Each structure stands twice: as C-alpha cells, then as structure tokens.
Amino acid sequence: MAPTRSEFAARYRFPLDRFQNEALDALDAGEHVVVAAPTGSGKTVVAEYGIERALRHGGKAFYTAPIKALSNQKYRDLVEIHGDDRVGLLTGDNSINPGAPVVVMTTEVLRNMIYGRNPALDDLVTVVLDEVHFLQDTYRGPVWEEVIIHLPSSVQLVCLSATVSNSRELADWITTVRGRTRSVLETRRPVRLDNRYLVSDLTADRLRFMPMFVGGVPNKDARRLDDSAIRRSPPRGSRPTRQGNDSGKKKLATPRRLETVDLLARRELLPTIYFIFSRAACDDAARVCAESGLLLTTGDERAEIQRIVDGRLAPLDRDDLEVLGINPFREQLAAGFAAHHAGMVPAMKEVVEACFTAGLVKVVFATETLAVGINMPARSVVIEKLTKFTGDHHQRLTPGEYTQLTGRAGRRGIDDVGDAVVLWTPWVRFDEIAELAGSSSFHLRSAFRPTYNMAANLVRTYESEEAHHLLNLSFAQFQADRDIV
Predict the structure, then answer these.
(1) Nearest C-alpha neighbor of 169 from the set 443, 370, 392
(2) pLDDT of 27
C-alpha cells in the first residue's frame, strides 16, 4: 500500500520546502504541475510523490528522462524505494520488467508507445517529464511536445526543470492542451554558489584564483588582468587580438588540468567535476593525472574502490574488460581520478558514479551529459571552456547550460557553499563570462517543427483533420500566437 502524504514526507531528511508542498498540493488537486527550481533543491520529491499517488490509486506511472544515463540512475533510485519487482526500465539499450507499475524510459520510447497505441498505456495515471527544458533542443525538442499533446487526457503530468524562467507560459500552454496546470517556481539555491575565475599568470609564474564578482558586480581586478592579454595597438580596422592567440610573448594562459586539480586539492575544494566537452579529452585528462603520481585517495578508500569495481564489473567477460582498458581504469580510480562520458560502457560509467557519490573518487573529467539530472553533486565544478562543438560548429554556452553545469557544485547537507571555477581562455573575455554567470534568464523557446517521421505517425494514427488540429496545438504555435497578440 502506498504511503499517505504525511508518511511520504516523513521519509526525507529535510522538512519539505514551500515549493515542494505547493507542487504536492497541485497534484492532490488533480492538476498538472510545472516545477522550475535550482539543481539540488529537491524537485525529485515532487516526481516521487506523483508516482506514489499513481500507485495509491491502482494505476501506473512512467518516469521519462532525456538521456540513458539519467534513465539508468532513476531506475536504480526507484528500485531502492519500490523494489525491483515493481520498477521497469526501457531505453535503447535495456528492457527490464516493462510491465511493471513504474517504468523509467527515455522520452523517445514514450513517444513511440503513444503512436503505436501500446497497451502499456492502459491504466497510466502519471507521467514525469524530467529536464523538460529539452523541449527547446533543436533536434530532440519536438518529442517532448508530441508526448504532452498526444498522451491520453486522463494522464497527470509532472514537468521538472532547473532552467525555465518562463515556467508560467509553459504551464499556460499545457493548460490549453491538457487542462489546469500549475506553475511552481523556486529561485533560492539550497547551497550558495560562488563563481570563481582561474588564470595562469605567466608574468608571475603562478595561478590567480579570483572571485568573479565583488560586491555584486564583476571583479575589476579580474577584468584588468584579462585585458592585459589584449594587444593595445592592433592593425587599423581590425579587432584587438588576445596575446594567448598569437606568436607574441604570452602574459596569460589557460591553467593546465593537473595544476588546477592540485590547487583545488590544496584549497579543500574536492571532490570536483571537471567539464571538458570532448570524450577523448576526458579520457586523456584522467590518464595524465593518474600517471603524474598525484594520489588523492587513502588506503582504505582504494580498498573500497577495488570492492566496487570487482562487484559492478563481475558480470563482464575478462577478455572484454581487457579490451576496454580495465587496468588503466582501475589505476585511475585508485588514484582518485576518472572520466565519464557517453562513449563508455554503462557498467564502467556506473562504477564511476558509485565511487564518486561515495566520496572515493575526487576528480571526474566529464562531458556535459553529467550535468543533466544525474545525482552526482560535488564540492566544486570546473568549466574548462565556454564553447562546445555541436557536430558542425562551435557555439557558446547559454545561461541555462552554464546553470546546469554549475548546478552540481555544493552538496546539500554537507557544504555551506559550492564553487564554480571558470578557466581563463583566449577566446572569451572576462566580461562575457561574468555576464553568463550572472544571468538568471532561461527563457524556454519551442523548437517544434513538423518532421517526416512526425507526419507519417500522425497520418497513420489520426484522421487528417484531427492530425492538422494536433499540429496546431504545439508550444511553438502557442508562443507565436502570443507574440502576435
């Protein structure tokens, strides 16, 4: 029997916050809910309550996530609550207990189930749409809108995100499509975040570790230091070039990974997640740091790491593990370092997550996939570059992406403050970095566009008039109509 609301609330170490109680009230009132709250503030409580309500009413609940890694973690979390016989998992890689009353899946899997009129949708009461800001993703965003529009009208939605400042507009749209929807907004971060700027000053042969803001405004000393890397007499008609970019004598440089880790260790800012937007670079960074001889773990920690590795990787064939590089993987973990990215086999990623969550591994070099919902909070985060390659071009991080990355900094109940450390780079000025870090505007804009796949599914599933009507229900059309008004 699912617990009552008071029994549910008693399960948590902290009393429920104002926004959590407001969201739970909305669910009890039969409303859909859009929860926008900072990373680590406890949005998952709302999702878990929605699932509990579905089970209490004899129905089923689906938990959708944008990436497989997050789906796998949510599956493990829910198994701990409900037991492995009552929780299933459906991703491109796994199909575990799909007939369970609680099933975790990627959003694309749910969209395909809807178009296929899958019987698993029978008795579905609640759907959690985690990381709903993916709705604005150019390539995958339309899937979220398709799910919201096409789910059976009886299903209650729980939409969660850390980076939606126009949550009321999103709630208004869902109200027009599905019925009464409440927007619940929380802006207070549970652990204070300090933004830092780290520069390698070649003129003094030392690292300069500086606050990004002083008295609420960008640090003037940091700006002056960054300006010193700009040539004062550029050719007429051209833009100033930064000395880190040409063959002239450099004054500033991007701090090296090993010296950055060493500084964080001396300042007691470990564990840290070190974001590098390249899988190969993550692997290389973990290898170089481990081979340097820097040891961040104790003997007891190394023994526990060994136990986790042996336990988690036991099902894999020994020859396969050799091909996957098990020996350097063990050595890196034992030294306190690891890489984490989508190119790793799931079992090895789970080892990294388990070791880091237990406080055994001190530095994880990760791509941005680790910023999406996965519960791996750290004392600090490092952002090596503020640009990333999308597959055809380099683009600057958005305020929302920056907030997702830095949301990992600061462990609730452990740290009073989390530190976000941005490294100096010749490509981005300090003022641009400060503007990004100081922004709190995460306006969600629909990326909905009809695709051939969507058109085929609509034509196959609905009469032409209804299919045309459903296309007009998109969030993109809703925003366009509002813009006109």
Answers:
(1) 443
(2) 96
